[in-house]
Amino acid sequence: MNGFKLNPEFVIRDEQSLRSLFDATHALALQKCQDSLGKHAQDFIRRSPFLCIGTQDLNGKADVSPRGDPAGFVKILDERTLVIPDRPGNNRLDTLVNILANPTVGLLFIIPGFDDTLRVNGRATLVKDADLLASMSVNDRAPKLAIVVEVSEVFMHCAKAFRRSHLWSPDHFQDRTTMPSLLKIILDETTGAPSDGNEMRKIDEDLEDEYKRTLY
């Protein structure tokens, strides 16, 4: 299969060309952007069990990572400061390494059942303050470090994407078993998955056991 090639005639190369395709921004869309966490933003964060954090390295290579915990897992230290615990993962450390190189981050807070979301932008710092980490313990396990975010921009994001995708509608849920398991996908694309179904099933079961042992 030949790789897709863009027709340069249709490439947008400057902001003026981009904005000419759209109507002017509604004044409220500009005014809604705040530089600190108001009472509603704080309430949203306390209700949220899930966020995505976007980072970039110095060369502009981007990454988005999901973070989840019981609702309210992100601590609000004050109206300009958030703290996100770093739980055990795969130890690639993509987000953390990016923050060391480029502290600018973007956060998207999501609440199950809510179609609107909260966006927070700011500068991140990695910290290992023992008292702070202890305050974010779950099942008596404190995180090894935390991400402190100095907030610079806060605003609510409208519901259109979630409405279009029917994200929370059970009628649109898909059957996970119609695709291979996580490990089979990874093995297929790397070293090769075992052809023996029982062996593959044992690998999947081992992953579930690991989740139970290492979630915190």
From TrEMBL:
Stored Pfam families: PNPOx_N
SUPFAM superfamilies tied to this protein: FMN-binding split barrel (SSF50475)
Alphabetical list of InterPro entries matching this protein: Pyridox_Oxase_FMN-dep, Pyridox_Oxase_N, Split_barrel_FMN-bd
Residues of the Pyridoxamine 5'-phosphate oxidase N-terminal domain: 39-158
Gene3D superfamilies according to UniProt: Electron Transport, Fmn-binding Protein, Chain A
PANTHER family named among the record's database cross-references: FAD-BINDING, PUTATIVE (AFU_ORTHOLOGUE AFUA_6G07600)-RELATED
Stated name of the protein: Pyridoxamine 5'-phosphate oxidase family protein
